[in-house]
Write a structure and sequence with these properties.
The protein is built from seven helices and eight strands, in the order E-H-E-H-H-H-E-H-E-E-E-E-H-E-H. The protein is an alpha+beta fold.
Amino acid sequence: MPSLRAEGPGERLTLDDYSADFSRHFWRSGSDGFWKLERQQSFQEPGVESWEAFRKGHWDESLALIEGQRGHYEEYFQRIAGNGFALHRVRCVEEPISPYLQWELHLLHLKAQCGEDTRVLTGGGIPQYESRRPLPEIVVLGSLVMYEVLYDDAGRLAGGIRFDDPRDISRCRQAIQKMHQSGEPLDSFFSRQVARMPPPTVTEE
């Protein structure tokens, strides 16, 4: 399988620089599309209303806030399609499913209904891709640019490392594509494993 580790040098970006750089390139992803690999099982999402409700233990409110975003995401994915590309995601899921991931899978399920192509790689399928260390968090924007997304110790977005070498970008995109092909469509995984889970017990801060 192609490596998910860049061979060429990368440029370390602060959070503000990463966000600005990502925004500049996102809508130019082109026919190669947007590919994202998510490995960590818990993040912090300060400022996201549904996550804030989840964190406070208000599960029904959190789900209602997610559903309230349906119109926004329908328009968002229509705009993406109109720009000639699609969003593809591989979400690694270990069991037991963490409280954060239970929340995120509800959000990803909504996004999938609106047009995102998400597949789940479960715990049994993850080790074959991890020889010595956990998989990185990777975002590939077409053939233009690739980022290793960085988080602080609390799981808050902290910036990224940008890579421009076309060989690194192509190799990592192919690696994520292979993982995507081997994963389970989110809809079936969600229906079987997530939809009937009781509200999570929030222990994360």
